[in-house]
């Protein structure tokens, strides 16, 4: 599914469209590089144990990191729902 932001002026925006360069991003979604390194380590163990790298399927990232900047959201007159804030891995207040 997708997440939408409902602004006080009644405009509904997809979460991914809320990036205003002059005040910074209110919301960002990106890879969690710690998790990526952990998964790479698990693959390395398989290779060390003798599995051929050619036999290991490509792994797509399964998780993303949600970051919210409430200061930027306030400057953009955005109200980010508490449920979305609760799911964020990092919140700038």
Written account of the structure:
The structure is a single chain. The radius of gyration is 18 Å and the shape is rod-shaped. The strands form 3 sheets. Strands 5-6-7 form a 3-stranded mixed beta sheet. About 8% of the residues have low confidence. It contains 3 helices and 7 strands, in the order E-E-E-E-E-H-E-H-H-E. The relative contact order is 0.23. A hairpin with a 5-residue loop joins strand 1 and strand 2. The protein is of the alpha+beta class.
Number of strands: 7
Radius of gyration: 18 Å
**Sheet with most strands: strand arrangement:** 5-6-7
What structural category do the secondary elements indicate? Answer: alpha+beta
Distance between the termini: 26 Å
Q: Classify the helix fraction into a percent range.
A: 25-40%
Number of helices: 3
Give the SSE order as H and E letters. EEEEEHEHHE
Keywords:
93 residues; alpha+beta; three-stranded mixed beta sheet
């Amino acid at each position: 599914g997708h997440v939408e932001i409902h602004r006080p002026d009644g405009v509904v925006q997809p979460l991914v469209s809320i990036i205003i360069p002059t005040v910074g991003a209110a919301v960002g979604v990106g890879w969690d590089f710690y998790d990526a390194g952990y998964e790479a380590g698990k693959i390395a163990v398989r290779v060390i144990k003798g599995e051929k790298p050619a036999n290991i399927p490509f792994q797509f990232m399964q998780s993303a990191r949600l970051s919210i900047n409430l200061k930027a959201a306030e400057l953009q007159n955005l109200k980010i729902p508490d449920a979305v804030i609760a799911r964020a891995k990092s919140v700038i207040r």
